Amino acid sequence: MTKAIFYKEWLKLRWYFLLAFIVSNGMVAYCMLRIDRAIELKGAAHIWEVMVLKNVTFIDLLQYVPLITGIIAALVQFIPEMQRKCLKLTLHLPCSQQKMTVAMLATGVTVLFGCYLANLLIAVSYLPGVLPYELTRNILSAAAPWYLSGFAGYLFTAWICLEPTWKRRILNAAVAAITLRVYFLGVVPQSYNDFLPYLLVYTILLTTLSFISIRRFKAGRQD
Amino acid sequence: MNTILECKHLTHYYGKRKIYEDLSFEVPQGRILGLLGKNGTGKTTTINILSGYLEPREGECLIFGENIRTMPSHMRRRIGLLLEGHVQYHFMNIVQIEKFYSSFYPGQWKKEAYYELMNKLKVAPGQIIARMSNGQRSQVALGLILAQDPDLLVLDDFSLGLDPGYRRLFSDYLRDYAQAENKTVFLTSHIIQDMERLIDDCIIMDYGRILTQKPVKELLSSLYQYTCQVPEGYEPQLPDSFYHPSVIRGTLETCSFLPPAEAEEALKKHGVPYRSLSFGHVNLEDAFIGLTGKY
Q1: CB A89 to CB B77 under 8 A?
Q2: Domain boundary residue among B195, B218, B241?
Q3: Any chain B CB within 8 A of the CB of A4?
């Protein structure tokens, strides 16, 4: 049954996954190209110096890409469920509703993880060749909260989409917008280092929000 | 006869607006029961409550003896649900949707029942449901329910958006299936002519209450429509046993469960200045309008 849920979610997400995969990897590749050109024009030593002294990472273009990818993934996945209350069909299936919700979210998270992993692979296959270990680590640590924001954006949007009333959706969207600021507080490399484990736990906990929406949907809330 | 569906003392409000209070009814096994009511009388509310998507303010709804809100998930395989407008996963095609649903009903899924119906549709296997006509979508939704082979079918406004041909096809197919397999069906529809061909029993709802619940044959044989002439300008003041009397151009029209002799006696007793009283039986649509009124 879980396999069938994955199948349904994959049917919704597959074209979007392809698009997100191409666009996000294209942007990562473009950032790597920028580093490459800067090194070619100014020399590696100068670029390393700038990166150390001015905290430049050359990947600032990527800052909101994971967040946008996550938000659109949730919209693609959950808007069809809420159109004409299609979610009723899903929740009527003879399968635990908790299990079903987890499977739906897990599909979206897996798709995003696939995109983000490919982004990471491009970066780690190129950066160590032109930058020392510390600078590569700086770039990756700067990007880590942005990528976590992608999962958070996905989970927040799922929470908003699955909510049965517009009034609450607007309230949830406002809460999400404010809370997502946590992922973009500092752009200085390694500024999130100590906080990252907590941010990871916090992001995982956001999974519970969708259960609140499903529960409200099941109770037919109209407030 | 076993009771398959039982709603007990349902009360529901939307905000401060009362939908109904203390509503109770039951559906025995093997019967097709239609819920009839004007817009806003609570038909969809009732369907939502008994399919577990609305928590009533008071009361409970039992299906197979289990409260629908706490029913174990495996028991839902015995309930087929058709949502208003034949809603289905519109991003799937007919092959994908069958593959998806069949995983949830191992041992009971009747693939051939689904494809028997699908073969009558002129759709390519790869055509997604979103690009189908309302009629074709209704057949997909019906085919999936028949393949699920549930003991109870809950159908919300099954005729919505269908042309007469598809409505007839849907109701005939459903009736044959329910009779042959001894299935229980609970349904609503706005088109009452279709209900008359399909249902065994009916519940007619008025605002906040049930007006009548009885087998259709019994309803139609016991309800009389009365017509008589009254003086111009006469304001009808009839006893409660006459439903929604209306006077148009000196002709009074009403209906009642009172047989003709008793009805005439009641009219005389109330001093109604009538003449040329005629009466007759009516079809389900006229019975519905007679009992609930035109307005």
Answers
A1: no
A2: B218
A3: yes
Do B44 and B148 lie in one domain? The reply is yes
What CATH number does the domain containing B118 carry? 3.40.50.300
Same domain, B82 and B153: yes
Q: ipTM of this model?
A: 0.86
Closest Cα to residue B284, out of B162, B171, B170, B156? B171
Q: Is A63 left (phi over 0), alpha (psi -120 to 50) or beta?
A: alpha
Nearest-Cα distance to chain B for A92, in Å, is 7
Give A181 to chain B, closest Cα distance, Å.
34
**Cβ–Cβ of B103/A218 closer than 8 Å?**
no
Q: Locate tokens 């979206």: which residue? A: A108
Chain B residues touching A91 at Cβ < 8 A: 52-53
**Partners of residue B17 on adjacent β-strands:** B14
CA distance B146 to B157: 17
Give how many domains chain B has, as a whole number.
2
Distance from CA of B12 to the nearest CA of A (A): 12
pLDDT, tens digit only, all 295 positions of chain B? 689 999 999 999 888 888 888 889 989 999 999 999 888 888 888 999 988 888 899 999 999 999 988 888 889 999 999 988 888 999 999 999 999 999 999 989 999 989 988 888 777 888 899 999 888 888 899 889 989 999 999 998 888 777 788 788 888 888 888 888 889 999 988 788 878 888 999 999 888 788 889 999 999 999 999 999 988 878 878 888 888 888 888 888 899 999 999 988 888 888 888 888 899 998 998 899 888 886 6
- A7 in reach of chain B (CB within 8 A): yes
For A109, A206, A213, B63, the CA distances from A115, given in Å and listed in that order, are 10, 20, 27, 45
Judgement on whether residues B204 and B238 belong to the same structural domain of the protein: no
CATH of the domain at B274: 3.30.70
Closest CA to B169 of B132, B201, B149, B143: B143
Of the three residues B178, B201, B218, the one that is the final residue of a domain is: B218
Q: Which residues of B touch A92 (CB under 8 A)?
A: 51-52, 76, 79, 81
Q: Which residue of B55, B83, B104 is in closest CB contact with A219?
A: B55
